[in-house]
Amino acid sequence: KSSANPFRKINVELYSYATIKQREIDELKKMEAFRREFIADVSHELKTPIFSAQGFVHTLLDGAIEDKKVRQKFLRKAAKSLDGLDMLVQDLLTLSQMETGQIKMQYESFNIYELTQEVIEQLEGKSQKKAIKVNFAEGVSNPVFVRADQQRIYQVMLNLLSNAIKYTKEEGEVVINFEREEDNIIISVEDNGRGIPEEDINRIFERFYRVEKSRSKDKGGTGLGLAIVKHILEAHDTKVEVMSEVDKGSVFSFKLPIG
Ligand code: ADP
Fold it and tell me: Which keywords label this protein (predicted)?
């Protein structure tokens, strides 16, 4: 006859039930703390451009509007702040849609070389004197067909390339490499810019994390570019990798399946 104590079984079940509930509570608390921190961060980021545009508009209304030169200068500055605000809201929307899984990836076959050229054209005004080169490794040539969400990968390339341009000196160089690895294409964006210190490298994909807060903000970034890149690539079951050395440069790379 079995001598097992039936109360012991109930006790064990109650115990594991309590542990599961406790874990759920801990998880909820963590999410709540995260949500609060996020709202605080967003409010802070929104305040900066609003405060700036408000300042210019009020100064104009207080009389500066009479002077044609001042008027133009202040309106230009207010418009710049509002453009920044628009970019921020756009990025926030993308990020929140990505995080809640509202966006389904639309997979299709496309030429990533062609897409890269379009991104380069879009950035032409910003790159000024910087050279942007495209390099094919052995065994890869145009066209380079991959299977992914074209529109989202455009955003990834735009964010990586505009960072490479932003964080590189006047006469910097940016190289985009296409390399083959088994059934994948490795796309890398390499710059010879200021690089990223080791202690920051794991944090740059967090929203609003900036290595040098004021310097990056001056450059007009929203602080969300890399967070968006990370989410888009995760949704493709792939990831972004980074190698960097201070004052030498950085390489951001990711893989996509040939298709
Ligand atoms: P931001 O809008 O500030 O550029 P990102 O999310 O795109 O925001 O990047 C986060 C931070 O990572 C930047 O503020 C910058 O400090 C650093 N960073 C990103 N790309 C590069 C790069 N190519 N070279 C040096 N630093 C970079």
Answer: ATP-binding, Kinase, Membrane, Nucleotide-binding, Phosphoprotein, Transferase, Transmembrane, Transmembrane helix, Two-component regulatory system
